[in-house]
Design goal:
The chain is of the alpha/beta class and about 280 residues long. It has one domain: P-loop containing nucleotide triphosphate hydrolases (Rossmann fold), CATH 3.40.50. The chain contains 8 helices and 10 strands.
Length: about 280
C-alpha cells in the first residue's frame, strides 16, 4: 500500500470546523505515493479484505475507547458508475456481519442526491449524477458524525423506482450504537474539487474498484434501461453525463489506499462471492 493513507489526510473532528478543499494538494500527494496494492475479489481476496477491516476497526475503536471516546471505522469504496461498487459494498458488509453480527452498515453516497425539484430549480436536471447534483456537505456531515460518535443516526437512501432520495424508518437505514464499521460507496469519494475533500477526510481507508470502463458502460446503460429509458436515450445520457463523470472518477484512482478488481474484470451477477 502507499506510504500515505486516507487516514493521513486532515480530518474534521467534533467541535472543529469542517475540512475544506483548500490545502488539499492531490497532485503533490500523488507524486509521493508508492504503487497501490491490488487485491482480486475472488473468495480468498474478499476474505482477506474482511479480516483486514475487522482487525483495523477493532484496533481503532479500542484505542478510542481507551481514551474515553466513541468511534466508528469508515471504509470508502469508489470507482466509476456501473462498476459494481454497491455489489462489493453489500458483500463486504455481509461478510463483516458473519464475524461481528450487527456491527456493520452500508451508507451509500446515492442517498445524498439532490431532489429532482432542487435539480430543476438549479438547472441541473440534465446533469443528474454529476458532482454538483449531490448534497456533498450533508454527506460529509453525516460521515463526520458517524465517525466521531456512537449516537443513533438515520441516513437516506436512493429510491430507484421514484428516482429520488428517501428516508426510511427502519433499522436497516439507521446507525445504532452497535454499529462499529460503516461502508460507504460512491463515485466521488476522492474527488479533490469543491467540498468533496470533506468526504475523503472522514474515511479511514478508501478502495478503488477498477472495473474496465467498457464493462461499466454496458452495466450502467442496462441499469438506465431497467429504470425506464430507451436504449437510445440511455446511450445518449452516458455520452453526455455518465461518460464525463467516469473520467472524473478515473482521475482519482491513484489517490486510493487499495485497488480492487473483479476476477477476470467481471463483477458477479447471478452468483455472489463467499469468503472463507
Amino acid at each position: 500500500m502507499g506510504s500515505e493513507s486516507v487516514a493521513d489526510r486532515p480530518r474534521a473532528t467534533t467541535g472543529q470546523e469542517p475540512v475544506t478543499g483548500e490545502g488539499y494538494d492531490a497532485d503533490m500527494r500523488d507524486k509521493h505515493r508508492a504503487p497501490v496494492e491490488t487485491v482480486v475479489l475472488d473468495a480468498a481476496g474478499l476474505a482477506a479484505l474482511t479480516r483486514r477491516v475487522v482487525v483495523a476497526a477493532d484496533a481503532t475503536c479500542c484505542e478510542a475507547a481507551a481514551a474515553g471516546l466513541a468511534r466508528r471505522y469508515i471504509v470508502g469504496i469508489t470507482g466509476v458508475g456501473g462498476g459494481g461498487k454497491s455489489t462489493l459494498a453489500r458483500q463486504l458488509v455481509a461478510e463483516i456481519e458473519t464475524r461481528r453480527p450487527g456491527a456493520a452498515r452500508l451508507v451509500p453516497m446515492d442517498g445524498f442526491h439532490l431532489s429532482n425539484a432542487s435539480l430543476r430549480q438549479r438547472g441541473l436536471a440534465d446533469r443528474k449524477g454529476s458532482p454538483p447534483t449531490f448534497d456533498v456537505l450533508a454527506y460529509a456531515r453525516l460521515l463526520r458524525a458517524t465517525r466521531e460518535g456512537d449516537s443513533p443516526l438515520p441516513f437516506p437512501v436512493y429510491d430507484r423506482q421514484a428516482h429520488e432520495p428517501a428516508w426510511r424508518e427502519d433499522a436497516a437505514h439507521r446507525l445504532d450504537a452497535a454499529v462499529r464499521i460503516v461502508v460507504t460507496e460512491g463515485n466521488y469519494l476522492l474527488l479533490a474539487d469543491g467540498a468533496w475533500p470533506q468526504v475523503a477526510a472522514t474515511l479511514d481507508t478508501c478502495w478503488y474498484l477498477d472495473t474496465p470502463l467498457e464493462q461499466a458502460r454496458r452495466w450502467i446503460i442496462e441499469r438506465h434501461v431497467r429504470g425506464g429509458r430507451s436504449e437510445a436515450a440511455a446511450e445518449d445520457w452516458y455520452r453526455r453525463v455518465d461518460g464525463p463523470n467516469a473520467q472524473l472518477t478515473l482521475a482519482t484512482r491513484d489517490r486510493a489506499d487499495l485497488r480492487v478488481v473483479w476476477p477476470g474484470g467481471a463483477a458477479p451477477t447471478t452468483q455472489t462471492l463467499t469468503a472463507s
